[in-house]
Specification:
single chain; ten-stranded mixed beta sheet
């Protein structure tokens, strides 16, 4: 596809408002200076100063940036052609932007901001997957009814994987599994046996014995690697499961294992690992979601947190030819891996903005619904009174893991969505291995996230909890 032709009908730049100027937002602001069809002159953060610093980091001169505390100040700065930095979305809501880029990462704030934009007739690019995993389908439905679009964003894995998987199905490929690599590679120094991941190095010389499977089972080899790496590194990250939940909700995929298999693997092994049991792989069926931990040597290219699919090889001659051209085909020749080893954060958000605001299209597709829930599971005994504080780069909760399970309407005796439980207080003890139920946590009555989830449940579930 020629992208110049694809967007040729968009003749005026789309004005946007960014809320949340972290690393994702800053990369978007910087790239927007080079994009002809998108403008980003409005940014909101916890303080106007923080938003102003994001503009400065993107290369705007101090004289181009206005710190605004009132709507009047924001309007004057806008009319003067300056960048508007504010501490509240309310301050800038009267400015003529067409699309909100929501990148706070806060489930409550992202829901509040998205609803405000939808009610005002603005499109939403929902970067905050934390809110999306709880209420994304409901927000998308409300937006559709208002004549606007909520979309995931290119630059993050869910949108890229939805595109890759839907492309594959359009051209007639049968998908066994779809997923992504974890955010940071495991890099082996073969000489020393040291393994480095996200700046942390551990001595794991035993990994060298399982680096190449040779004639051994690739699944068994991956299990040994997981045992070795698991002694020094965490092998599950909530954001990975969260992102794949969005893909499942868009495409009707499901988790093969609620906590994912997440094997440590080299790229040439993907087609074997994510094949079905009958082919010696991990999958118990087709159209499954999962992740893998990319293993590589320092001189090898990173998978860069990219996305992949494993597809059925249904014509021997075709796939023998493609294997000869370097495509990753399994030992059996029955499955192949196709992959996109990149996600460029805010650098590539513009395509999603143009699709939504310029073409009226959402990256979710036309049937985004709550098919799977990301639920919170206690990793050790949790006492009543424990505050489930969400924090860190991965927005995780100490002592709490996540699983992907079939979605259901909220009920006190049903598992709570992970990010609905985040930052709440337990009112009952929860034993290790048990899901944290909605009735186990105290959620303030004025929670906008809870209210929106209940609205979503009405849209997609009958009174008996069955999907509609």
């Amino acid at each position: 596809m020629n992208f110049h032709a694809h967007y040729a009908g968009i003749t005026e730049p789309v004005d946007t408002c960014l809320v949340g100027s972290g690393s994702f937002g800053r990369s978007y602001l910087a790239q927007s200076r080079r994009t002809r069809l998108v403008n980003a002159r409005i940014a909101v953060d916890v303080t106007a100063e923080a938003a102003g610093k994001a503009f400065a980091a993107a290369g705007f001169a101090p004289a181009e940036i206005a710190l605004c505390t009132t709507g009047a100040e924001a309007k004057a700065a806008w009319n003067a052609g300056r960048c508007v930095a504010a501490a509240s979305l309310d301050t800038v809501m009267e400015l003529p932007f067409a699309l909100l880029v929501e990148a706070t990462g806060s489930p409550e704030a992202a829901t509040r901001h998205s609803l405000a934009a939808i009610d005002a007739g603005r499109h939403v690019a929902l970067v905050s997957k934390e809110a999306d995993s709880v209420v994304g389908p409901g927000l998308a439905r409300l937006a559709r009814d208002k004549g606007v679009v909520v979309t995931p964003v290119d630059g993050d894995q869910p949108s890229l994987l939805i595109a890759l998987a839907s492309w594959a199905e359009v051209i007639g490929l049968e998908i066994i599994a779809a997923g992504k690599s974890s955010e940071y590679d495991f890099v082996l120094d073969a000489a020393t046996g040291n393994v480095t991941c996200n700046g942390v190095t551990r001595s794991l010389p035993a990994l060298r014995e399982h680096w190449l499977p040779g004639s051994r089972s690739i699944v068994a080899t991956a299990a040994e690697r997981a045992r070795i790496l698991g002694e020094a590194f965490p092998l599950r990250a909530v954001p990975d499961l969260c992102e794949m939940t969005l893909v499942a909700n868009a495409l009707g995929f499901s988790a093969d294992a609620a906590g994912f298999h997440a094997p440590p693997a080299r790229v040439p092994e993907l087609a074997d690992l994510f094949s079905e049991h009958r082919e010696g792989g991990l999958m118990g069926g087709t159209r499954r979601i999962d992740v893998f931990h990319h293993l590589r040597l320092a001189e090898e290219a990173s998978f860069a947190g990219g996305v992949f699919i494993v597809v059925r090889c249904d014509n021997d001659e075709t796939w023998e030819m493609l294997a000869g051209k370097g495509h990753v085909v399994s030992r059996s020749g029955k499955t192949a891996a196709l992959y996109l080893p990149r996600h460029l954060l805010g650098v590539e958000v513009v395509t999603s903005i143009l699709d939504a605001a310029g073409l009226g299209r959402s990256g979710y597709g036309d049937d985004y619904r709550p098919r799977q829930d990301l639920v919170a599971v206690a990793q050790h005994d949790l006492a009543a009174g424990t505050i489930l504080t969400m924090g860190g780069h991965h927005h995780s909760i100490d002592g709490v893991g996540a699983e992907v399970r079939p979605a259901a309407a909220l009920a006190n005796d049903r598992p709570a969505p992970f990010y609905l439980a985040a930052d709440r207080t337990l009112v009952r003890p929860v034993k290790a291995g048990e899901a944290i139920r909605l009735g186990d946590v105290a959620i303030p009555a004025d929670s906008g996230l809870l209210a929106m989830r209940r609205r979503q449940d009405v849209l997609f579930f009958a009174e008996n909890g069955a999907p509609v």
